[in-house]
Amino acid sequence: MSREAGCPLCEADGGVVIARTPSYRIVRADEPGFPGFYRVVWNDHVREFTDLDGAGRALCMQAVVEVETLIRRHLQPTKVNVASLGNMVAHLHWHVIARYDWDSHFPGAVWAAQQRTTDPARLQALLPHRDALEAELGKPARPA
Amino acid sequence: MSREAGCPLCEADGGVVIARTPSYRIVRADEPGFPGFYRVVWNDHVREFTDLDGAGRALCMQAVVEVETLIRRHLQPTKVNVASLGNMVAHLHWHVIARYDWDSHFPGAVWAAQQRTTDPARLQALLPHRDALEAELGKPARPA
Predict the structure, then answer these.
(1) pLDDT tens digits for range A88-124
(2) Relative to the CA of B6, which of A111, A130, B100, B128 has its CA 20 to 30 Å away?
(3) Any CB–CB contact under 8 A between A2 and chain B?
(4) Which chain B residue's Cα is nearest to A81?
(5) A69 at the B interface (CB within 8 A)?
(6) In tens digits, what is the pLDDT along chain B, a chain of 144 residues?
(7) Vertex A72, ends A66 and A77: CA angle to 5°?
(8) Residues of A in contact with B112 (CB under 8 A)
(9) Cβ of B68 and A47 within 8 Å?
């Protein structure tokens, strides 16, 4: 496995691991105010999506699609945001984020300026649905 | 073709069209300070990436991969940013953006706060390379 010294995503999982394969892991990001914020993190230290071959890209996007599908099914967000940026940590990871028209940054990106304070009751109400999402996402029989 | 009244990406191309197929177009975004900022816009009005079937998703990501590949080849950015957000315009489009460590927002997202003023000479120097990129991207023989 390819690792780079000092890379935070080589040295740690980068969040609460919900699913893990030899190729990638799916983690819940620790981002307050965004209970449905997941990352698909490639295990090898690769910089860009196009550093993967076609089979790797397909596998990676299949995981992104699975997370988006389960976010829609369980969390019913206003919109799903998907992004691979990596300007800060150039180790391939896809953000897959449930966004709501009442969240702190909507309709801006989560990286943009905060627009409002989030109602804690709305966040709290999502937690049982998130548990159900994560139970389904964590099921075995995941392709390598 | 599915269209929605009032949707800016149903009513206009959304940028300078570099390539067009029956399924999608690739446009250069009008984003000052970011000369290598492209969007893959799905022609039909679909909201989420997972509203496409597997064949549509593969075709769409193949276009994203092609843009990223040509950005890397011709513009040699510090990092490529790829994102499908759609909070403002919920019509499927992928941003594919050449980022440089000297650009106005790096290492932040382009949607985050500006960090510096960009040197116009550096932007200018990219333009011939962008022309070469777009000549290659605009070549015919693109799968539908």
Answers:
(1) 999 999 999 999 999 999 999 999 999 999 999 999 9
(2) A111
(3) no
(4) B85
(5) yes
(6) 789 999 999 999 999 999 999 999 999 998 999 999 999 999 999 999 999 999 999 999 999 999 999 999 999 999 999 999 999 999 999 999 999 999 999 999 999 999 999 999 999 999 999 999 999 999 866 665
(7) 140
(8) 109, 111-113
(9) no
* Whether A111 and B106 lie within 8 Å, measured CB to CB: no
Average pLDDT over residues A44-48: 98
User: Mutation test of the interface with chain A: which of B34, B82, B110, choosing the one with the most A Cβ atoms within 10 A?
Assistant: B82
Could you give the ipTM of this predicted complex?
A: 0.96
CB B133 within 8 A of CB B67: no
| Residue A103 backbone dihedrals phi, psi, to 5 degrees | -75, 170
HEC letters along chain A? CCCCCCCHHHHCCCCEEEEECCCEEEEECCCCCCCCEEEEEECCCCCCHHHCCHHHHHHHHHHHHHHHHHHHHHHCCCEEEEEECCCCCCCCEEEEEEECCCCCCCCCCCCCCCCCCCCHHHHHHHHHHHHHHHHHHCCCCCCC
Q: What is the 3-state secondary structure (H, E, C) of chain B?
A: CCCCCCCHHHHCCCCEEEEECCCEEEEECCCCCCCCEEEEEECCCCCCHHHCCHHHHHHHHHHHHHHHHHHHHHHCCCEEEEEECCCCCCCCEEEEEEECCCCCCCCCCCCCCCCCCCCHHHHHHHHHHHHHHHHHHCCCCCCC
